[in-house]
UniProtKB/TrEMBL annotation:
<protein>
    <submittedName>
        <fullName>Uma2 family endonuclease</fullName>
    </submittedName>
</protein>
<feature type="region of interest" description="Disordered">
    <location>
        <begin position="1"/>
        <end position="26"/>
    </location>
</feature>
<dbReference type="Pfam" id="PF05685">
    <property type="entry name" value="Uma2"/>
</dbReference>
<keyword id="KW-0540">Nuclease</keyword>
<keyword id="KW-0378">Hydrolase</keyword>
<dbReference type="InterPro" id="IPR008538">
    <property type="entry name" value="Uma2"/>
</dbReference>
<feature type="domain" description="Putative restriction endonuclease">
    <location>
        <begin position="33"/>
        <end position="175"/>
    </location>
</feature>
<feature type="coiled-coil region">
    <location>
        <begin position="218"/>
        <end position="252"/>
    </location>
</feature>
<dbReference type="GO" id="GO:0004519">
    <property type="term" value="F:endonuclease activity"/>
</dbReference>
<keyword id="KW-0255">Endonuclease</keyword>
<dbReference type="InterPro" id="IPR012296">
    <property type="entry name" value="Nuclease_put_TT1808"/>
</dbReference>
<keyword id="KW-0175">Coiled coil</keyword>
């Protein structure tokens, strides 16, 4: 009896990121400055201690292909993070897009920065045309089942966090008094909160990650300043120690050789 060959794995038959378009000329224009700076701050402070840096991938405004039945359907989250996946595509290349049927790991958290033109889709308030792709909310909740979905509205000064509970998102935080708005994520050993400070020379409210002690995760420039301050303090301590030693020697009638 003739036997057919078993079907190839999906990874070998479906399009890869090299096959799929990474840009769509019909989509909205380039992000404004806030949509550039805020995702950058999220990425710079996203360092979950449970994962090595080689297993952390973050992206903003990158095509996210989510359904192998409709390979061209995609969303472009303002920012998302995946843990437990190689930082480079197949450990060798920068990603053109994130293709879930190739990666086999879905995002752990998505952050959307609300704009008047995208608010209804981001909040799942649009009616779906059966012939068109689902909304972002539907994709994150029903298809990708992203555990955490954060929304930050800089126009209304709102920070909202949704957690996947069962088969739907449950709102676990809705803050309009943003001076101390924080949400802890145990699976990351990190929290996401609203920080008021200066970033990229702009003083405003920003979303930023914090550690288990409640300290804001440092950006590289802050780490450099902290390191320089620690070195300055160490040098000052050494100077004071030397001066005390010199004083002790002189009190004993010994003139130290300072050359």
């Amino acid at each position: 009896m003739y036997q057919t060959e078993p079907p190839l794995p999906a990874k070998e038959t479906l399009p890869t990121m090299y096959d799929l378009p990474s840009e769509d000329p019909e989509e909205a224009g380039l992000p404004d400055q806030f949509h550039l700076f805020q995702p950058q701050l999220l990425t710079e402070t996203f360092r979950p201690p449970l994962y090595p840096i080689e297993e952390i991938f973050t992206a903003s405004d990158l095509n996210l292909y989510y359904d192998s039945r409709y390979p061209l359907w995609h969303k472009r989250p303002d920012w998302f993070a995946v843990v437990g996946v190689p930082y480079l595509y197949e450990n060798r290349d920068l990603r053109l897009s994130y293709v879930v049927w190739q990666e086999a790991i879905n995002p752990y958290i998505v952050v959307e920065l609300l704009s008047p033109g995208t608010e209804k889709e981001d909040l799942g308030q649009t009616l779906r045309d059966a012939e068109k792709p689902p909304s972002k909310w539907e994709v994150y909740e029903k298809i990708l089942r992203v555990p955490y979905y954060a929304i930050f509205d800089r126009y209304k000064s709102e920070f909202r966090m949704f957690q996947l509970t069962g088969d739907r998102y449950v709102e676990t935080l809705h803050e309009t008094t943003l001076s101390n708005s924080r949400f802890w994520i145990p699976g990351l050993e990190l929290g996401l909160g609203v920080w008021e400070g200066k970033y990229q020379n702009v003083q405003r409210l920003w979303l930023r990650w914090y550690d288990r002690n409640g300290n804001w995760m440092l950006i590289p420039a802050e780490e450099e300043r902290q390191k320089a301050e620690q070195e300055r303090q160490k040098a000052e301590q050494e100077r004071q120690k030397t001066e005390r030693l010199i004083a002790q020697l002189r009190s004993l009638g010994v003139e130290p050789d300072l050359d």
